[in-house]
Each structure stands twice: as C-alpha cells, then as structure tokens.
Amino acid sequence: MKLDWLEIRRKLLHVLIGSILILLMALGLISPLGLFMVIVAGSVLSVLSLRFRLPVVAWLLDNFDREKDRKSFPGRGAITLFVGILLAWKLFERDIAYASMVVLVLGDAVSHLVGSHLGKIKNPLNGFKFIEGNLIGGVAGSIGAMMFVEPWLACLGAFGAMLIEAIQVKMNEAIIDDNIIIPLAAGAIMTLIRVVF
Fold first, then answer.
1. What is the pLDDT of residues 81-132, one digit of tens each?
2. Residue 1: is its pLDDT beyond 60?
3. In this structure, what are the phi and psi dihedrals at residue 76, rounded to the nearest 5 degrees?
C-alpha cells in the first residue's frame, strides 16, 4: 500500500501541536482567552491566505494542508483542533477535559493513520473509515486519557468518541469536523458516566 506522506505529516503535526498545547495549559502558560485569540488570529490568516501567499503561512499550508482545504478553508485542521481543545477546556471538569483532549490528539491521529494505511474492513457507519483505525485509535486514546482519569473511564470515553467519530455528524448539510466531535463526545461520555456511577 502506498503511503500518503501528506497525511502522515499532518497527523504528526496534529500530535505535536496538540501535545504542546495540553502541556502549556497544564503549566498555566496559556489561558482560555489566549487560546481563543490564537483561534481568531488563525482564522484571520486563513481568510487572508485565500487571497494572498503569506510567507510562513503559505509554506505551512503547502506542506501540511489538504488541497481542498487550501482552496476553501486554509488551515482548517489546525483551527478546528484548537476549537475542539478550547471547547473541552471550558465545558468539562479539568481531568475529563484533559482526557478528552488527549483522545483527540492521540486517538484521532492514530485512527486516521492506521485506518488509511492498514485498514481492510470498511466501517459500516462510514464508508470512508476503517474498523481497524477506530479500534486502534480507541486504544491509543484510552492509554493517553488514563494519565488523567481512571482506566475504565478513559476506555469508555475514548472508544465512545471513536464510535461517534466514525459517524458523519452533519449540521445544515455540512459535516462537523472530527476535531470538534471527538473531544465533545469523549468529554460528554465521561461526564455522563461519572454522574450516573
């Protein structure tokens, strides 16, 4: 099977940026307002990139962005990653928020890479995804989330989020990005389980 080097680079950057961001948050070096301002700045650069080739931004987009996103929403993956992390940070208890972010950072990247490069069994919920990717993504997300919550809670949150991520969630005919769906699903599942049990 031919390796998709663009997707490998994208997912490695996804893990690196997400991990650095979680570390900065845990150390108190970035606030929710600071993260929101990064999202606003990224959105402005995205709009400007539709019309102009901004030196550093253009290089990043050329090397890490999908062709379709460069034409319609440059930097979409990075912006939605930051939005998903900010939503988890503001909506959930601290330990569940961090666990949800790790499920996004590790689970999503591993799920995509394993599914697209090694997957054989199509997911019946989504013809573009593979069961192997969702399962291994759930394992990776669970292991990472265990740094913040109990192992059983981490597993239920991660595997639940990977299951929901496999379904294409739409709003007004637009598919909601999995960078937003995954942390919200993981956090909601873990919060609900904690409340019930």
1. 999 999 999 999 999 999 999 999 999 999 989 888 787 888 777 767 888 8
2. no
3. -55, -45
Sole residue written with tokens 């991660």 = 158
The rounded distance, in Å, linking the Cα atoms of 139 and 126 is 20
Q: Residue 168 region, left (φ>0) first, then alpha (ψ -120 to 50), else beta?
A: beta
Nearest to 18 by CA among 89, 62, 81: 81
Tokens, residue 141 = 């997300």
Residue 124 · residue 163 · CB < 8 Å = no
Strands 170-171 and 126-130: unpaired
For CA atoms 86, 17, 28, 140, give the dihedral sign. Answer: positive
Give the number of C-alpha atoms closer than 13 A to the C-alpha of residue 139, restricted to the C-beta side. 7
DSSP per position, the chain: ----HHHHHHHHHHHHHHHHHHHHHHTT-S-HHHHHHHHHHHHHHHHHHTT---HHHHHHHHHHS-HHHHHHSTTHHHHHHHHHHHHHHHHS-HHHHHHHHHIIIIIIHHHHHHHHHH--SEETTEEEEEHHHHHHHHHHHHHHHTTTS-HHHHHHHHHHHHHHHHS--EETTEEPPHHHHHHHHHHHHHHHHHHH-
Structure-token pair, residue 149? 């919550």
